[in-house]
Amino acid sequence: MKMLIVSPILIPLVAAILALLLPRRLGKLAGVAGPAALLAASLALLHWVLRDGIQVLQIGNWPAPFGITFVVDIFSAIMVVLTGIIGFALAVYSFHSIEPERFKFGYYSLFNILLMGVAGAFTTGDIFNMYVWFEVLLISSFVLMVLGGERAQIEGAVKYVTLNLLSSTFFLIAVAILYGKLGTLNMADLAVRVSQTYDDTLVKVASLLLLGAFGIKAAIFPLYFWLPASYHTPPAAVSALFAGLLTKVGVYAIIRTFTLIFIWDRTVTHNVILIIAGFTMFFGVIGAVVQFDFRRLLSFHIISQIGYMMMGLGLFTTVAISGSLFHIIHNILAKTNLFLISGFVYHLQGSYALKKLGGLYRRQPLLAFLFIIPAFSLAGIPPLSGFWSKFLLIKAGLQLEGWIIVSIALIVSLLTLYSMTKIWAEVFWKPDPQAKPYSVEKNAKYYSMLMPIIFMAAINALVGLYAEPFLNLTLKAADQLMHPSIYIEAVLGGYLP
Amino acid sequence: MQSHILKIAARHLLLPFTIMSIIILWRGHNQPGGGFIGGLVAASAFILYNVAYGVQDAKKILRLDPRTLIGIGLAIALFSALLSVFLRMPFMTGMWVDVFLPLLGHQHFGTPLLFDTGVYLTVLGVILTVVFTLSEES
Fold first, then answer.
1. Which pLDDT belongs to residue A436?
2. Which residues, in sequence order, are CB contacts of A251 under 8 Å at separation 6+?
3. 8 Å CB contact between A457 and A337
4. Would you list the DSSP string of A336-400?
5. DSSP-derived secondary structure letter, A488
6. Per-residue confidence (pLDDT) for residue B136, from 0 to 100
7. Can you tell me the ipTM of this complex?
8. pLDDT of A159-173, one tens digit each?
């Protein structure tokens, strides 16, 4: 039973090995079966954690804080479930839409290794181990980004790799400072020790270095410029994977460290986070307004939405944090799906430039309907999922009388709606500028790309229309995050320094 | 470039490099060394051969596709981690056996060595995949 805790890491690893060793066709099937199994395992894990509380596994039978600990609380479990959903949908989407040449170079192995890295980062309870998982997911994302070797891909990858290496260096320096100062890497143990020495300058420096390191990965203001420069270059399935998951790993790490470890000097850390959140939201959406490339526009929206997730953390109440978590759930579902739709539109019309697209409302009414769900969700139109998360965040903001951040959040919401209607008007509403008749072959590729879009839209609609259980879930998770002693107790148990 | 000295050196260095890499892998548990460095040393032998004779011959002498090596390496590492689970101990618990070998005497074998062997093969496979791909393109 304890193995369920590491199953989100082991299942993708097995799938990656099989995808490498089995003959081509069977390997491809293993590449899809892995994420499907991951989804099933993660749901079982979430169920278990909700029933029995935080689950802990000491790797290699070394007790905490000496060995590496894996910890799954409700927040981790939610993130792993989302990894499973995205992994499964994208594996199916990739099946026919990725070129054979890319499969030959191990697309599905890298895809699964990336999922392994993401799941590892979500479940580990050791800060250095988290660094290792970051490296695992980054290295595989580097390769996925350049796989295929197109000119634009290499150009985007240079920026992506450089900035992420810088962020990894910051991360490592911060971890080294913490270890040198406090002598531990276990996050629960760190939390205990920081509570005794939080006034120390070096600890403060380490906390802000970590914020910078995770901030680059999460693409917060002013460290976001690498994201729109690189996310639109690889194939749609890959950019959907990056857009959906990778920045959220950074957000996860920020929320984890700043609800568990660095919670004592909030006038510095959490106020900084709140200010950054406001800027991130605003500049992200302003960047999107002037874009006319489908995927670049969506990339800027990723940044803007990260701001909302940071806002909840900055406000630091149970309602606010649950708003952040709900926003992560909503955003992973909606944003990934919008990228999938952009890839599908590219398949139909051969372009990502909004000027060259058009007329899809007539030709593909189903697709137009499917676009509405994530797009309106993102803009926060009730009763879709984005409404609930923004409702929670704004409610929490008003309770704390944070008028500025609340007004920024509302204005940004309006601007989001504006850019979504821009996509709607350009891609679906206006007549096709190419105006030459074409027929779309409804082959296996067509359906293997359409099905994941329907799957994601259905989950997205469910989270919005039947929000109550999800709201309860995020409230429970936030409650756990606001009481770090539960986490510490679960990890260290009898051993408390 | 055709150099007889390089060709003969590359051919004769293949075996010593490989043996050396295995020694480095072996001593790695308690002394400097290990799977990662061992894999790099082994890969350098094949890279030298690749420089002297070209990609086709280097691939021939490796026999396996380097990507298969990655797969086998990862599978061995995974197996070493799971072995303790099959014996109803926590994940990745280190386990040891003492074996008497002719010439070498009593030896201490454990799952960390098995894991390192997996690392060795994975590193070898990754490096050679990169090198072969780059030399094929130029």
1. 64
2. A214, A218, A306, A309, A310, A328
3. yes
4. HHHHHHHHHHHHHHS--BGGG---HHHH-HHHHHHHHHHHHHHHT-TTSHHHHHHHHHHHHHHHT
5. H
6. 83
7. 0.91
8. 899 999 999 999 999
A60 vs B contacts (CB less than 8 Å): 90-94
Output the pLDDT for position A106: 87
Token digits for A240? 């959907």
Query: Which residues neighbour A219 within 8 Å (Cβ) at sequence distance 6 or greater?
Result: A226, A227, A247, A250, A280, A302, A303, A306
Q: Which helix (H) or strand (E) covers residue A70, if one does?
A: strand A69-72
* Residue in A14, A59, A105 nearest the CB of B91: A59
User: What is d(CA A80, CA A87) in angstroms, rounded to the nearest whole number?
Assistant: 10
Q: Rounded to whole angstroms, how far apart are CA atoms A241 and A243?
A: 6
Q: Which of B67, B72, B89 is opposite residue A61, by nearest beta carbon?
A: B89
A483 pLDDT more than 80: yes
Q: Which residue has the tokens 């060795």?
A: B120
The secondary structure of residue A432, as a DSSP letter, is P
What is the DSSP secondary structure assignment for residue A48, as one 8-state letter?
Answer: H
- For the stretch A406-457, pLDDT in tens is 999 999 999 999 889 989 998 888 888 876 666 677 888 889 999 999 999 9
- A172 Cβ partners below 8 Å, 6+ apart? A131
Q: How far apart are CA A4 and CA B33, in angstroms?
A: 34
Reported as a single tens digit per residue, the pLDDT across A249-279 is 999 999 999 999 999 888 888 999 999 999 9
| pLDDT tens column, B44-58 | 999 999 999 989 999
**What's the pLDDT tens digit per position in B83-115?**
988 888 888 888 888 888 777 777 778 888 999
Is B75 part of the contact surface with chain A (CB cutoff 8 Å)? yes
| A21 closest CB neighbour out of B68, B82, B91 | B68
Secondary structure class of A198 (helix, strand, coil): coil
User: In the 8-state DSSP scheme, what is residue A433?
Assistant: S
Domain ranges in chain A are 3-489
Give residue A13's pLDDT band: very low, low, confident or very high (50, 70, 90).
very high
The answer to whether B93 contacts A58, with C-beta atoms less than 8 Å apart, is no
**Domain membership of residue B98 as a residue range:** 4-137
HSE of A367 in the Cβ direction (CA atoms, 13 Å)? 25
Residues 47-76 in A contacting B (C-alpha not used; CB under 8 Å): 57-61
pLDDT digits 0-9 by tens, A54-94: 999 998 888 888 889 999 999 999 999 999 999 999 999 99
SS3 content of chain A, % helix, strand, coil (to 5): 80, 5, 20
The three state secondary structure string of chain B is: CCCHHHHHHHHHHHHHHHHHHHHHHHHCCCCCCCHHHHHHHHHHHHHHHHHHHCHHHHHHHHCCCHHHHHHHHHHHHHHHHHHHHHCCCCCCCCCEEEEEECCCEEEEEEHHHHHHHHHHHHHHHHHHHHHHHHHHHC
CB B17 within 8 A of CB B45: yes
Q: Look at chain B and report how many structural domains it folds into.
A: 1
Instruction: For residue A462, give the 3-state DSSP assignment.
Output: helix
